[in-house]
Amino acid sequence: MASLMFTDCSSMSSTLLHVNGPRRGAILFRQCVGQLRLRSTASGRGCSLSIRCSSSPSSATSVDGKAVAKTIRDEIAIDVSRMKESIGVVPGLAVILVGDRKDSATYVRNKKKACESVGIKSLEVRLAEDCSEEQVLKSISCFNDDPSIHGILVQLPLPSHMDEQNILNAVSIEKDVDGFHPLNIGRLAMRGRDPLFVPCTPKGCIELLHRYNVEIKGKRAVVIGRSNIVGMPAALLLQREDATVSIIHSRTKNPEEITREADIIIAAVGQPNMVRGSWIKPGAVIIDVGINPVDDPNAPRGYRLVGDVCYEEACKIASAITPVPGGVGPMTIAMLLSNTLISAKRIHNFK
Amino acid sequence: MASLMFTDCSSMSSTLLHVNGPRRGAILFRQCVGQLRLRSTASGRGCSLSIRCSSSPSSATSVDGKAVAKTIRDEIAIDVSRMKESIGVVPGLAVILVGDRKDSATYVRNKKKACESVGIKSLEVRLAEDCSEEQVLKSISCFNDDPSIHGILVQLPLPSHMDEQNILNAVSIEKDVDGFHPLNIGRLAMRGRDPLFVPCTPKGCIELLHRYNVEIKGKRAVVIGRSNIVGMPAALLLQREDATVSIIHSRTKNPEEITREADIIIAAVGQPNMVRGSWIKPGAVIIDVGINPVDDPNAPRGYRLVGDVCYEEACKIASAITPVPGGVGPMTIAMLLSNTLISAKRIHNFK
C-alpha cells in the first residue's frame, strides 16, 4: 500500500515557500520527512517499502508534482479567463479516441476534466476500433480547419491496422500540442530555433526542476531511457538549459556508474525500481517518470504503482525526488493545458 | 610545418586491408608509425610538434580520411555511371553562392570539382553581395522545381542582411542535401524515423568509424561541441547506433574528466589543441573535426592547420585518430556527393 502511504505522507507537511525569479512565483514546497526502512524482496529489482513519516533531516525533499500541477492549473485558469474577457476567445482542445481501450478512455476523461477545471473547451471524437484510417484523417482535417480548436490530440495507441506516423503527421504543426511532430523535435534539438510545442511529460519534468529552483546550467544530467515521448526530448531540453547530458539506454554497459555521476537524473525507462541507491550521487535531484504496477496482495486492487527509481533507497541519498504517484504524472496533463493555452495565445496573438 | 609533415607521414606507410561487413569493402588502412616528440609552447593551448616517422608500436592508427573519401568517391562514380546507363539520369547538384567571400568561393569550387570527378552535374548560381533575399529565394524556387536538380546547397555564411533560417527553410526537403532542415534533424533524433539526408560532416565522421570497423554499439561516446552542423547531429547519429552519448560544451564544468571516460571522441569545437593527452582514455578512437589555423613562422603561408585535439599527445594514447588535415575534411565533400546520389536515386526510384 505504498502508494497510499505516499499520498498520506504528502499531505502531512506542506509549506508555502516563495522562490526567487520572475517566472517562479509562489510554489508549494513539501519536505517529505519519512523515516524509510528497506525490506529486500526475493527479486533483485523489487524493493518493497514501509514508510512512517517522522522527522529525519537526511531524507530528500519530495518533489510534489500534484501541488505544482495545481498551481500551474490555477495560473492557466487565470490566463484563460483573462483571454476570454479581453478578446472573447476560449482555448479549445480536440481529443480523438479510436477504439475502446479502458486505459485510453480513462486518460481522455481525465484530460477533459482537467480542461473543464481551467475553462478550456474540450471536444471529443470517438471512433470505432474498426474504423478506417481515412475516418481518423478526416476528423483531424476538420479540427485543423476549425478556428475554435487550438490543440489536437490523438490518443495513443491507435489500433494496429493504422499507420500511427501517418496519422500524427496529419495534425497541423500549429495545433500539435503533444509536440511529437518531427519538425517540433528538430527545432527542439537545434540551437537558435524554438519548437512551437514542447512534449508534455518532458516539459513537466523541466518545469518541476524550475519550480523547485534546481540549477540546471553546468550540471551533469543523466536521462535513463531514450523514447521519442520522454527520454529523448527530456535530454534535448536539459541540453538547451546548458546541462551536460548523457543518455542511458538498454545497450549501455555501465548505467550504474554513469548515473552516479549525475547531479540531475530523469528516469523514464518503465522498469520498476531499476535505479537503486547505489546508482545515486549524494545530493542528486531525481525526476522519476516511470509509473509501473507491481503485484501487492496488501493493496486494495492487488497492485501498487512504483517508479523506475527505488524510492526508499533514493530518498536517503538524493536531495530531492518525485514520488510515484504524485510526481511527474499530474504535471503531464498540466502541460497539455499549458500547451493548449500557448497555442490559442499564439494563434490570436494574445500576450 | 607540421601539416606538411602529416602529409608526408601519411604517404609513407599505406596498406590495403579488407574489412568485414557488406558495406565495408576494401579500404585503405594506414598506420601512422610516427615517433612523436612534444615541444611545449608559450601558450597553454598550443602544442607544437615534430614528427619523424619510424616504427613505434605504441602509436595510434591514423584514420586516413583522404583515402577513405577517395574510395567513396570511386564507389559513387560507379553508381552514377550505372544510373546514367540504366535510366539516363545524371544526378545534379545546384550551388548558390551569394557575395564574394574568397573562402566561400574556394569551397564552392572544390565542390564543383568533386562533382565533376564522379560524374555528377553541378550548376552554380552566383549572386551579388547586395542582392535581395527575394532573389536568393527565387533561385531556390527554380531549383526546387527543376527535375534535373536533386540537391540544392546554399553556401554559408550569407550576407548579414539576409535571414538565413528563412532561406534554408525554402530549400525543398527532398533536395536538402546538407540535411540542415529541422524536419530532417527531427527525424534524425527520433527512433523509428529516418531522415531524408544526414548532415555531411557528422555523416563523414560516422562513415570513418564504419570503414575502420570501429564498434559503436554499447560504447561510451563523447561529442565535444553542440553545433547544429556537427556536434548535435553527430551525437544523434552515435545514439542511433546505440552508443551511450554525452555532449560536452562551453558550460561543462569538467570536460577532461568526462572525455576520459569515452571509447569514441568526436571533437568539433573549433579550439586548437583543446583536447590534450590527459583527456584521453587509453585505446580511445578520436575523430577530430576541428581545422584551426595557428601561427607558424616556419610554414610557407605563416600558419598551419591543427585540430581540436593535440595530435602528438593523443597519438600516443588513442588507438586511432584522424589527422588534421586529411582526416574528416575530405569526408565532408564525399558525403555531399553521396547525399546528392541518394537523392537522385530516391527521386527516380533507382536501386
TrEMBL record, chains A, B:
UniProt-listed InterPro entries: Aminoacid_DH-like_N_sf, NAD(P)-bd_dom_sf, THF_DH/CycHdrlase, THF_DH/CycHdrlase_cat_dom, THF_DH/CycHdrlase_CS, THF_DH/CycHdrlase_NAD-bd_dom
Transmembrane segments: none
Catalytic reaction equation(s): (6R)-5,10-methenyltetrahydrofolate + H2O = (6R)-10-formyltetrahydrofolate + H(+); (6R)-5,10-methylene-5,6,7,8-tetrahydrofolate + NADP(+) = (6R)-5,10-methenyltetrahydrofolate + NADPH
Associated pathway: One-carbon metabolism; tetrahydrofolate interconversion
Reported function: Catalyzes the oxidation of 5,10-methylenetetrahydrofolate to 5,10-methenyltetrahydrofolate and then the hydrolysis of 5,10-methenyltetrahydrofolate to 10-formyltetrahydrofolate.
HAMAP family xrefs: THF_DHG_CYH
NCBIfam families, sorted: PRK14186.1
UniProt-recorded name of the protein: Methenyltetrahydrofolate cyclohydrolase
Organism the protein comes from: Brassica carinata
